[in-house]
Each structure stands twice: as structure tokens, then as C-alpha cells.
Specification:
With 160 residues, the protein is mainly alpha-helical. It has 8 helices and 4 strands. It is elongated.
């Protein structure tokens, strides 16, 4: 028998998908190689993408409405690919930035300690200078040293 050594063209994508499987299985708390539908966002974030809750809900529309239902990797993968493609083609909105700030808002009260936020803005991603942070925070820091991050995002968003 002759065995073809030609690539199907899907090998890199298949390899990438197989690298995601252990991350998916790491969220299986039952041992049946499935995760609850309610965990899909957490699984995606563990895989390195940061979808909004609205994006996840939209991508889940073909799945069971019961968040406790469990799905396997092969059913999860198209949902992941849909969300990943949307993230790659869609510019960030003000709502996306506010959702991103919520990760640091442990109590979900809408405020972050200005010192912590300054630290994050000067060391992560596209780093800001201290002067840029001072300018951005001007008039937004309350008497307790907190900043309402929605106001900050709105200010920065309207500047650009």
C-alpha cells in the first residue's frame, strides 16, 4: 500500500486544537471529559482569549439552554472558534474595557484603588507613563483614593 505524505492543510489547526484539549479537560470537575455550559467563558479565558459575556451567550445559542448541561471538547470547539474569530475582527468597545476592569474589581462595586490601577497601567500591555496616568486620573480620584473605572474608560475613550 502507498501511504501519502501530503499534508491536508489542517495539521497546524488540528495541532493547536489538541493543545487546547488539556485546558478544556482541566475544567472537568466530574471526570467525564465534559464541562458545564456555564463554564465555557472560564475555559475560553484559560485558553487565552477574553470574550465578553455577551459574546459567549451569542456563541452558545445552538447549545442547550440549561447551564448545568455538560458538553464535550468537540462541541465546545466550534463555540470557541466562533468567539475567537469575532475577537480577532472586532475593535474593542468602551463596554469591553469596562468589562476588563471588572477583573480587578474584587467586590464588583465599580471602583478600583487608584494606586493599584496606576501600577497596572504602567506595567501591563501598552504601558502608560506616570505623567499620562496622572493626566488621565485628574479629577477622578475620590477622597478614599479610589477611582470609578467607568469614568476613566469614558474619559480615555472620548480622547481617542
Amino acid at each position: 500500500a502507498v501511504v501519502s505524505t501530503q499534508s491536508t492543510g489542517n495539521k497546524p489547526k488540528e495541532d493547536a486544537n489538541q493543545e487546547l484539549k488539556p485546558i478544556f479537560l482541566g475544567h472537568d470537575m466530574v471526570g467525564d471529559d465534559n464541562v458545564e455550559i456555564s463554564q465555557i467563558g472560564d475555559v475560553m479565558r484559560a485558553m487565552g482569549i477574553n470574550p465578553t459575556n455577551a459574546m459567549i451567550e451569542k456563541a452558545q445559542q445552538g447549545l442547550d439552554k440549561d447551564p448545568t448541561k455538560r458538553i464535550g471538547f468537540n462541541k465546545f470547539l466550534p463555540v470557541y472558534e466562533t468567539v475567537k474569530a469575532e475577537l480577532a475582527t472586532r475593535p474593542m468597545t468602551m463596554v469591553d474595557y469596562i468589562e476588563g476592569m471588572k477583573v480587578f474589581d474584587r467586590d464588583l462595586v465599580g471602583f478600583l484603588f487608584a494606586g493599584e490601577l496606576k501600577h497596572l497601567l504602567t506595567i501591563l500591555g501598552e504601558k502608560l507613563t506616570d505623567d499620562q496616568v496622572v493626566e488621565a486620573f485628574k479629577g477622578l480620584v475620590d477622597d478614599d483614593g479610589n477611582i470609578r473605572y467607568k469614568d476613566l474608560v469614558e474619559r480615555l475613550h472620548t480622547k481617542n
